Amino acid sequence: MIDAENIVYSIGGQRILANVYATFKPGEVTAILGPNGAGKSTLLKCLTGALKPDEGRVLLAGKDLKHFSLTELSRKRAVLSQANPISFPFTAHEIVVMGRNPYSLEKTTASNAEIADEALNLVDARHLRDRSYPTLSGGEQQRVQFARVLSQIWEQEGACLFLDEPTSALDLRHQHQLMDLVQKLAAEKKLTVIIVMHDLNLAYHCTDRCFFIREGWIRGGGTSKDLITADTIAEIFDLPMKYAAMRFGMDLAG
Ligand SMILES: Nc1ncnc2c1ncn2[C@@H]1O[C@H](COP(=O)(O)OP(=O)(O)OP(=O)(O)O)[C@@H](O)[C@H]1O
């Protein structure tokens, strides 16, 4: 469970997040949606502890993030950022094993390597195991990075998974595979999953709840099926109604 309480965040005097309140529940996949530059990644970084809000606080399972040590945090939440540039020729498997760093003292190298292999399997990337990471395609790299964050919280029931545009480089089949996997893991391991995404159809069909963010304010928190409507899309994205209804299909047109 993650609670954002009255988060305020500014950059260079510009207010990016204004009095944001939001609750993200275990066992659920929640989307954060909104236009470019709205503050979605900034909010995600505040929720993970990567950015410290100017005001307000973030609670993880009821405890203020600032009271967790980095080691504790690394076992309770994993973060997939929008960009993960790596130029050193690590293999895909070595990248995924890096997710196991928080357990390097207590788990054997062999068991960490095995978990990394299982994570690669889950994301349909086992065949890339020994490839040099910088030579992989964008979508292949994205799947390997996803395997890395999965391996980080592999044995952690009730952990949090933060994903910033995890499907941006994926083809249609892998987009659905990733979202199916995320839903399954959220339900089975009671993960709190928070995903920044732009694909509203995917959000409609594959997330439980959503928040919309725009110009610093946030609203939502209800079910994605209730909230992602042509009316809302037209308003949040400044899109003429006919495009909102047309682009997102009959089931979103209401
Ligand atoms: N370090 C920074 N310095 C200056 N401005 C920044 C910085 N980081 C973010 N911003 C600005 O803050 C605003 C919010 O950025 P953020 O990355 O949170 O948007 P976003 O909703 O995730 O956008 P996108 O959908 O394009 O990824 C943007 O206008 C961005 O230019």
Describe the structure.
Part of the ABC transporter complex HmuTUV involved in hemin import. Responsible for energy coupling to the transport system. It comes from Sneathiella sedimenti. The model has no long low-confidence stretch (mean pLDDT 93). The protein has one domain: P-loop containing nucleotide triphosphate hydrolases (Rossmann fold, 3-Layer(aba) Sandwich), CATH 3.40.50. It is α/β, with parallel strands linked by helices and 254 residues long. The chain is 37% helix and 24% strand. The chain is globular and about 55 Å long. Helix 6 links the parallel strand 7 and strand 8. Helix 3 crosses helix 4, helix 4 crosses helix 5 and helix 9 crosses helix 10. It has ten helices and ten strands. Strands 6-7-8-3-9-10 form a six-stranded mixed beta sheet, sandwiched between helices. Bound molecules: adenosine-5'-triphosphate (ATP).
Distinct helical segment count: 10
What can be said about the biggest beta sheet?
Answer: 6 strands, mixed
Please give the number of β-strands: 10
The low-pLDDT segments are: none
CATH superfamily: P-loop containing nucleotide triphosphate hydrolases
CATH architecture, please?
Answer: 3-Layer(aba) Sandwich
* Cα Rg: 18 Å
- Write down the CATH class: Alpha Beta
What distance lies between the first and last C-alpha atoms, to the nearest angstrom? 31 Å
Do you know the CATH topology? Rossmann fold
Tell me the series of helices and strands, N- to C-terminal: EEEHEEHEHHHEHEHEEHHH
Q: Any idea how many domains?
A: 1
Oligomer: single chain
Average of the residue pLDDT scores: 93
Function: Part of the ABC transporter complex HmuTUV involved in hemin import. Responsible for energy coupling to the transport system.
Domain ABC transporter: 2-240
GO molecular function: ATP binding
Organism: Sneathiella sedimenti
